[in-house]
Amino acid sequence: MAADSLTFVFLDAAIINNFVLALFLGICPFLGVSAKRQTAWNMGLAVVFVMLVSSLCAYGINWLLVHFEIEFLRLICYIAVIASAVQLVEMAMKKFSPALFRALGIYLPLITTNCAILGVALFQTFREYSFLQCLAYSLGAGVGFTLALVLMAGLRERLELADVPSVSQGAALTLIIAGLLSLAFMGFAGLGGQHA
Predict the structure, then answer these.
(1) Residue 13: CB partners within 8 Å, gap ≥ 6?
(2) Phi then psi dihedrals of residue 155, to 5 deg
(3) Which residue, of 18, 105, 138, 157, has the fewest CB within 10 Å?
(4) C-alpha R_g of the chain
(5) In 79-193, where do the E strands start and end?
(6) 156: Cβ–Cβ under 8 A, 6 or more apart, which residues?
(7) pLDDT class for 101, splitting at 50, 70, 90?
């Protein structure tokens, strides 16, 4: 496997086709957990771990399903793997970092329903990525998700100190910022060139 191919797969998921800002997957945690940088960073790390575990498991599950010619079970199997990975993250956080567990609150179980994680598993399957490409793709998607969360949290923290007109405070301003970030990331779409 050429290193430039793996690099492209990583950058494609992280920046060029960022799951939150270009593909619009995972918007709920993006808007809900991006109020503070520390919380956004920790949530991003949890999402990276879950994406990595679920992606690697999805690769193995897909191989097994194709081998037995029961590909129609793909979606259900992927959802079960994602739910299990989230449970692992929850148990680890509760044991090793109770403060972080309390800070994330309801948003940690929301990782289970994060469509970005399911999207990673489905996209890598339909693109028929190799094992190393799956690894690069899931890491890139997780890093891109974390980048979007931390950028949004940083902007929201800065805007708490700004004099913002009352008509655009709260959710309206958050959606405006999300739209501007999305436009900025869509500018990266042509950077990959014609990659096969």
Answers:
(1) 19, 120, 136, 137, 138, 139, 140, 141, 143, 144
(2) -65, -40
(3) 105
(4) 18
(5) none
(6) 34, 35, 174, 177
(7) confident
